[in-house]
Amino acid sequence: MSAKSRCCIVGAGAAGLCALKYALEFGMEAVAYEKCNEIGGTWVYTEQTTDGFAAAEDVHSSMYEGLRTNLPKEVMDFPDFKFPTNMRESYILASDVLAYFQAYAEHFQLLPHIQLQQEVVRVRPQHNKWEVLTLDLQSNSYTTELFDYIFICNGRYATPSYPQTEGIDLYKGHKIHSHVFRKAESFKDATVLMVGAGRSGMDITHHIYPFAKRIYLSHHLQQKPPITDFMPNVIQKPVVERYTADGAIFKDGTQASFTHIIFCTGYNLTIPFLSADCNLHVHDNLVYPLYKHCINIYHPTMCFIGLPIYAYPIKLFDMQTRFVMQYYSGRLQLPSTADMLADTERDLAERRERGLPRRKAHLVGERQFDYYDELAALTGIDNIKPVIKNLSKICSGKFLYELQNYRKTAFEVIDEENFVQFKLDEV
């Protein structure tokens, strides 16, 4: 890589900012294209006035009013840029997280290298470079640029996923995806079916229960259901068998009527700007073939930052970017195409043996630290500090079983291995 190598970053959320920072540090001429009018990606709150399924496809961020993080900030920071030391709370407001990313961008002087309101329309390989076609959303004009390297950092939470349940077209009430949920008071006196008890489903239930008349929380967690006793108007139900005009019949044969449905059912991974020439298949939330979940095997000057799910996002972004830069800088050479393909196939086979469906081909979850260990061992980059792994043992699953009180706990990192925890009312 020469000092004149040009690098394109698609997106200026947390992953894009991280990639831009390292690209500049490694001497690249770098630019980040961001579709919105400010940086921060999914942490940017925007009002949403339209309703229904169609509206969800046009919404950039799923951020809603009053959201607090479900992970402590101690596992959400970049290794070389910490949250302000005067912030005692660990589970902080989304606005605090956005301010942190803005401060990160200013501290590392990233803003001059970011072009806002630029939509990436097409990416394709051209003569050992990347041709990137962008649309200026203000002037409605198109521009084509060539780059040596490209980082895809556009996130994976833009296209809502809905279960294909019988009768949904018969239902005549209001239905939205959590992607467009904004204000809890919008559900005052409503009877709501919440579909899904993941992080969004549980948190939105917690937000709206003081306003709603009744909430039916439908999920498939049978052996260890979430704790909702402190929300007296929440009734847990199994998954929906089929919908009716005013409600649903559940798998256990019971039925209920409701005025609203909120689908907290995740997202479909879409990367519409990739041309067929990129030699990648994007289907059922799998991007194939990628080496170590990030490097395009057939065109290794393209990488993806942030595809793995159920990981600590900021730690993931930082590790993946530093991993990739060891190869893009010329410090290390990638394995052969055949070896990278074989490695990817071994990973996919191991997941199938564990019973994971293709939709979870990029899931790391509890094994995220094994993944970080692997990236560090392959390239010699600094690994995640042991204290982060130790913290994860305390934080896991809190949104399901301690939803009422878990955000009242705060943490303080003492050194690379140790931390202390305390109740905020004890401070």
- Give the terminus-to-terminus CA distance: 51 Å
Corresponding CATH architecture of the largest domain: 3-Layer(bba) Sandwich
Biggest sheet features: 5 strands, parallel
CATH class term of the largest domain: Alpha Beta
Net shape:
globular
Q: How would you portray this structure in words?
A:
The protein is an alpha/beta fold and 427 residues long. The chain has two domains: 6-158 and 268-388, FAD/NAD(P)-binding domain; 162-263, 3-Layer(bba) Sandwich (FAD/NAD(P)-binding domain). 23% of the residues lie in helices and 24% in strands. It contains nine helices and 24 strands. The strands form eight sheets. Strands 3-2-1-7-22 form a five-stranded parallel β-sheet, covered by helices on one side. A five-stranded parallel β-sheet has the order 9-16-10-11-12. A three-stranded antiparallel β-sheet has the order 4-5-6, with no helix packed on it. Strand 1, helix 1 (14-25) and strand 2 (29-34) form a beta-alpha-beta unit. Helix 1 runs parallel beside helix 5 and helix 5 (313-328) packs parallel to helix 7. The longest helix has 17 residues, at 337-353. It is globular.
